[in-house]
Design goal:
mainly alpha
């Protein structure tokens, strides 16, 4: 039984308790255990940073990559990039590390940390631009494209939050939007370009969806990405069904259409069950394990900053 089927099966049994109606082990857990490091319950951790730095917040990550690359300039810039050192296809572990480091520094780093990240990323982006005669014109320094990528990252953060904790209240929703502005302003996007509130963001997002466009070059790249063709065959075969399910589930119909990705009611039910299991796991998993890989990313990034090593 693959990981997708296991999670779906669990989802049938833990749906109610996963969504906060009844935690099945409350009667056997002492108050001391609940307040300890290893048994701290998520409802006791109201700090937004604690909530965002949970490993299962990364569940929408693959779908988020599809969103980002669905703007033609971003898609071609990644698919045709000549920066092999940061290629997901050629160096998946390094690309994952550097992406998570960027997220952590942007959200929680000091001004000096973010300035260091900006210098490191700019050194890579310098080589990501179209050449004369290319079919699609793009430049990684384009602030409009960077704003789109940052907006997608905010949407992914919101999706992850809603999966693990349910819809945020107004205070948390406003704080999340403000905090995620750093995804944009850590690079070349001026603060004035980031939507001032959630209503302005909804308008920006709705308008931007009308410009979603994926050509065959990017579509082929994204299909290989969703199918995990950059992983060794045994690992790919094991993880691909779950990756496809999560990707399709977190994508709006607009994005599924440009990938020609089918999505049925059965797929939606399976996705909902997996989300129920993830919410339950997030509540019962010991805190250090639930925080992986963010605790490792934080340690590694601080170590690199202290040693003046490149973050990317």
């Amino acid at each position: 039984m693959g990981p997708t089927n296991v999670l779906v099966a669990l989802g049938r049994g833990v749906g109610d308790c996963a969504w906060g109606l009844k935690y099945p082990y409350d009667d056997g857990v002492t108050s001391a255990m609940k307040t300890s490091l290893f048994w701290r319950r998520q409802e006791e951790a109201n700090d937004l940073e604690v909530r965002l730095t949970r490993g299962l917040m990364l569940a929408p990550a693959a779908a988020n990559v599809v969103m980002q690359l669905s703007q033609r300039g971003v898609g071609r810039g990644v698919a045709e990039s000549r920066v092999t050192s940061g290629s997901l296809v050629k160096r998946p572990l390094k690309r994952t590390r550097t992406t998570l480091a960027y997220v952590w520094v942007a959200l929680y780093g000091t001004d000096d940390d973010r300035a260091q990240m900006r210098r490191n990323v700019d050194a890579q982006h310098r080589h990501v631009r179209s050449r004369p005669g290319d079919e699609v014109t793009y430049d990684a320094y384009d602030s409009d494209l960077q704003l789109w990528v940052a907006a997608c990252m905010y949407v992914g953060s919101l999706q992850g939050y809603e999966t693990l904790y349910g819809p945020p209240n107004n205070e948390v929703a406003d704080e999340l939007l403000t905090r995620c502005s750093r995804f944009a302003t850590t690079l070349q996007v001026p603060a004035s370009k980031w939507p001032v509130d959630r209503s302005a963001f909804a308008t920006y997002w709705s308008t931007s969806l009308s410009h979603v466009q994926v050509d065959e070059v990017t579509r082929s790249y994204l299909r290989d990405f969703v199918d995990l063709r950059f992983l060794p065959r045994p690992l790919r075969a094991t993880l691909r069904p779950l990756n496809r399910l999560l990707t399709g589930g977190y994508l709006d119909e607009t994005f599924r259409d440009v990938l020609a990705m089918t999505w049925s009611r059965r797929d939606q039910r399976r996705f909902d069950r997996v989300c129920a299991v993830m919410k339950w796991l997030n509540r019962v998993t010991p805190a250090p394990l639930a925080a992986f890989p963010w605790n490792l990313v934080r340690y590694d990034t601080r170590r690199r900053l202290a040693r003046h090593r490149s973050l990317v």
